[in-house]
Specification:
Order of helices and strands: EEEEEEHEEEEE
Number of strands: 11
Strand content: over 45%
Number of helices: 1
Radius of gyration: 18 Å
Structural class: mainly beta
Largest sheet: 8 strands, antiparallel, barrel
Mean pLDDT: 92
Distance between the termini: 23 Å
Strand order of the largest sheet: 1-4-5-7-8-9-10-11
Length: 180
């Protein structure tokens, strides 16, 4: 007998879709995407080890706390928002790696290129009834990608050696879901 799927949606006001890159090799610059939509379906496994994720991010919602830098990131040098207005992630499977810890596999589409990625997921738990009668679930998601794999190659060489922006992009997301 097939399990009935349970549907959840992202709670944007309680989520952070964040990223960071090394800047000049001496620090990290952080940013986030403020607008996104997505859903998660799963069977009845309480721990979400059978979850399916579908997430679309509005690239124009990038925020690094610097309008000039954000404009550069939205340009053809980086994310080319005019040609590629969305980033899409769709999971393809989940592996249990420990109690409340998973490795989520999926396809990330950015700049018109789709590549497989792996994300580490920590299940924070479920609140069956919040003060408003809603069921919520929480997660912490981390991972790394190489931006060059998606054709994002802009950089500037530094006089003393090194480059302005690292190739590695760290992903750090705090996710709260609402059961629908």
């Amino acid at each position: 007998m097939e399990q009935q799927k349970v549907s959840w949606v992202f709670e944007p006001s309680h989520c952070k879709l964040g990223f960071s890159v090394r800047h000049f090799g001496i620090s990290e610059t952080e940013g986030l995407f403020g607008k996104f939509t997505g859903s998660i379906s799963r069977g009845e496994k309480i721990n979400f080890s059978d979850a399916g994720v579908d997430l679309t991010v509005d690239v124009a919602s990038i925020d690094t706390r610097d309008k000039t830098r954000d404009a550069h990131l939205l340009s053809a040098d980086f994310l080319n928002v005019e040609k590629f207005p969305a980033i899409h992630f769709k999971s393809t499977g989940t592996e249990v790696i420990g109690k409340d810890h998973y490795r989520m596999l999926g396809n990330l589409t950015m700049m018109g290129i789709t590549k497989p990625i792996s994300l580490d997921v920590e299940f924070g738990g479920i609140i069956e009834k919040d003060p408003f009668g809603n069921t919520k679930a929480g997660f912490f998601v981390t991972g790394k990608i190489n931006r060059k794999d998606w054709g994002i190659t802009w950089n500037a060489a530094l006089d003393q050696g090194g480059v302005a922006v690292s190739e590695t992009v760290k992903i750090s997301c705090h996710i709260e879901l609402l059961r629908t």
